[in-house]
Amino acid sequence: MDNNDFFPPHDGVSLRELASYLGAELLDETKAERLVRSVSPVSRAGEGDVCYILSRKFRDELETCNATAILCEPALQPLIPSHIAILSTPKPHTAFARAGAFLHPKAMRVVPTVSGEGISPAAYVDPTARLEAGVTVEPMAVIGAHAEIGSGTRIGAGAVIGADVKIGRNCCVAPTASVMCALIGNGVIIHNGARIGQDGFGFAPGPAGMLKMVQIGRVIIQDNVEIGANTTIDRGAMDDTVIGEGTKIDNQVQVGHNVRIGRHCAFASGVGIAGSTRIGDGVQIGGATGVNGHITIGNGAQIGAAAAVIGSVPAGARFGGHPARPMQDYLRDMAEVLARSDERSKKRGKRNG
Question: Which of 32, 50, 298, 302 has its CA 20 to 30 A from that of 340?
Answer without folding.
Answer: 302
